[in-house]
Amino acid sequence: MYAAAFACVSGCPGQHALTDVIYRCPRCQGLLEVVHDADRLRARSAAAWMKLFDERWARTAWPYGSGVWGKREWVAPHVSDDNVVSLLEGGTNLLWAERYGQQIGLSDLWIKQCGTSHTGSFKDLGMTVLVSCVKQMIALGKPIRAVACASTGDTSAALAAYGAAAGIPVVVLLPEAKISAAQLVQPLANGAIVCSLATDFDGCMRVVQRLTEDPTIYLANSMNSLRVEGQKTIALEIVQQFDWEVPDWVLVPGGNLGNISAIAKGFAQLRELGLVDKLPRLVCCQATRANPLYRAWQRAQQGGHPLSAADFTPVAAATTLASAIQIGDPVSVGKAIAALVAFDGLVEQADESELAEAVARADRTGMFNCPHTGVALACLEKLVARGTIARDDRVIVISTAHGLKFTEFKTRYHEGTLGFPSHHANAPLRMGADPDQVLGELHRALDSRAG
Fold first, then answer.
1. Which residue has the higher pLDDT, 341 or 209?
2. Contact at 8 Å (CB) between 236 and 74?
3. Total domain count for the chain?
4. Fewer C-beta within 10 Å: the chain N or C terminus?
5. Considering only CA atoms, which of 112, 133, 154, 149 is closest in space to residue 69?
């Protein structure tokens, strides 16, 4: 039987069951992580794991059609089939960005499109695990009345959907007027209790800290490491989609920093169990207006020493188009720093104009990116221009959400109302209804683009 438990990330003694209502180490108040029985996992050979995962990929046998639950032994082995809450998350496209890559000087660029999941973001990967574990807890008699989260949008959408599918009440705390309409309507449509707070995300997290004192309301924020177990499957999928080869670079938009920590854990577990023999370099990509980890990285570089927790200071995040990563005091900063050090990683930033222009350039090649993916694309362009990333390196950009969640951002870009020039704006052509006139106008438009 495969087994996993909570343990302190700082190494405090003792473990806790995954069915316990616990978020921090009782000794040091540090974050917890899920640890697996590595010896038991190693009893199956690397080749056998690869064969098993390939056999399960996109199959209909419950619950293995899910990209997460197809790796269930590595994720949450204690959850029974009856308590798995899955909406067929994961298994997302790894898009070869051929034209965009050529434009910026890369021949082997890929976009992991996590936004094509059920609710339109990578948050589904973690939420299927967390809500399934809660359903397992309730089946065991835990008195949980609801699951709650603070969110900048995508977390609330995922939690609301999975809670609705499980029949578990959901409470979401949102910063008032700081998320897109599409993100707000998702938890409303799924029946969540939506609390719009007159604060920012960091303020919502202060309310969450109070909620941790109520054992009947289970918390779903990224301080809960159950979500990491689902999100780490991004790394497993990338390697599997490359026939078990590891890319050179993985770029991840960074806000609360749980995703880059999760992806690092996935790659580390692959190496630990012998499925791969190297690690990629990681890049955490932050918006200039919400860049505490980038500032810490700069301090470390200027001091000539590896990045450490001593370099980090929270900031007051300013308004950014990349609203989901508008976070100045990230919960998972310690895990992210450890991941960057272990993976020879680095941190880069992009300002508002850079992220918007990167989105527009990539969209012109067939993509439809969210502003957070735009942060990663803009950072990629800088690293390629500097020569840090070589032309022939295999590069993965994690696209965190679907562009359809951010149509206001895209509309404002093409209207030229974002407060800076929109160099790739594409306005509709106003014409009459005469067929000959329309044909003439179309040829003039095609000629101008050809020129």
1. 341
2. yes
3. 1
4. C
5. 133
pLDDT at 28: 94
Q: What is the pLDDT of residues 27-69, one digit of tens each?
A: 999 889 999 999 999 999 999 999 999 999 988 899 999 999 9
The strand ranges marked E within 120-211 are: 146-150, 170-175, 193-197
CA atoms within 13 A on the CB side of 78: 22
Are the beta carbons of 184 and 287 closer than 8 angstroms?
no
| Residue at 282 is within a domain | yes
Segments forming the whole domain that contains residue 100: 94-120+228-411
DSSP-derived secondary structure for 228-254: HHHHTHHHHHHHHHTTS---SEEEEE-
| Of 361, 348, 367, the residue nearest 413 (C-alpha) | 361
Q: How far is CA 244 from CA 28, 59, 123, 204, 270, in A?
A: 38, 19, 24, 40, 10
**Do the strands 15-16 and 4-8 form a parallel or antiparallel pair, or are they unpaired?**
antiparallel
pLDDT tier, 1 (very low <50, low <70, confident <90, very high otherwise) = confident
- What distances in angstroms separate CA 315 from CA 209, 247, 293, 329, 352, one per listed residue? 19, 33, 10, 6, 18
Write the pLDDT tens digit of every residue in 116-135. Answer: 999 999 999 999 999 999 99
Question: Is residue 432 classed as helix, strand or coil in its secondary structure?
Answer: coil
Strand, coil or helix: what is 227? helix
What dihedral angle (degrees, nearest 10) is formed by the CA atoms of 21, 73, 275, 242?
Answer: -90
CA distance 373 to 371: 5
Write the CA distances from 206 to 41, 367, 399, integer angstroms: 38, 37, 28
419-438 per-position pLDDT tens digit? 999 999 999 999 999 999 99
Residue at 298 is within a domain: yes
- Residue type present at position 86: S
Poorest-pLDDT segment among 106-110, 378-382, 403-407: 403-407
The CATH number assigned to the domain holding 105 equals 3.40.50.1100
CB atoms within 10 A of CB 57: 16
pTM passes above 0.90: yes
For the record, the structure tokens of 365 come out as 């090649």
Average pLDDT, the chain: 94
Pairing of strands 395-399, 109-113: parallel
